[in-house]
Amino acid sequence: MISVVHIHTCRNSATVTQKCFIPQLSRSGIITMAFKDTGKAPVETEVAIHRIRITLTSRNVKSLEKVCADLIRGAKEKNLKVKGPVRMPTKTLRITTRKTPCGEGSKTWDRFQMRIHKRLIDLHSPSEIVKQITSISIEPGVEVEVTIADA
């Protein structure tokens, strides 16, 4: 079965009509394309809405919160559905080591720690709009991970 190949919408000042090419098979076996005016309103194509999760990680809380606020402000300006920022538990990485390199002397120890802060932001929007939102300037030291899933 032969189906519609191309749909073209013609908008006049007063009317909106839909025109399409209909394939026709002649007796000699040649397929020709006939132009037909259906007179119906055009079919609007829906933009696929994705569930987008933005994961932000940083060692500096102030820069992380600033990037979160900028992302959420940009999403709300575009009237998107936003959830977050969800503050995940802070990971504390600890290393305890001897101060002396040779092992001699008094038993003195150094304790180092690094805290990693994490935020999650969920958006429901087309992926093209997320490209515009995430084009903001991101503070140094903040890692951004964008995961796109179908809604």
Automatic annotation (TrEMBL):
It is found in: Cytoplasm. Component of the 40S small ribosomal subunit. InterPro entries: Ribosomal_uS10, Ribosomal_uS10_CS, Ribosomal_uS10_dom, Ribosomal_uS10_dom_sf, Ribosomal_uS10_euk/arc. One of its GO terms (biological process) is translation. Keywords: Cytoplasm, Ribonucleoprotein, Ribosomal protein. Pfam families: Ribosomal_S10. Belongs to the universal ribosomal protein uS10 family. This is Small ribosomal subunit protein uS10. GO terms for cellular component: cytosol; small ribosomal subunit. It comes from Monopterus albus (Swamp eel). PROSITE patterns: RIBOSOMAL_S10. Residues 53-147 form the Small ribosomal subunit protein uS10 domain.
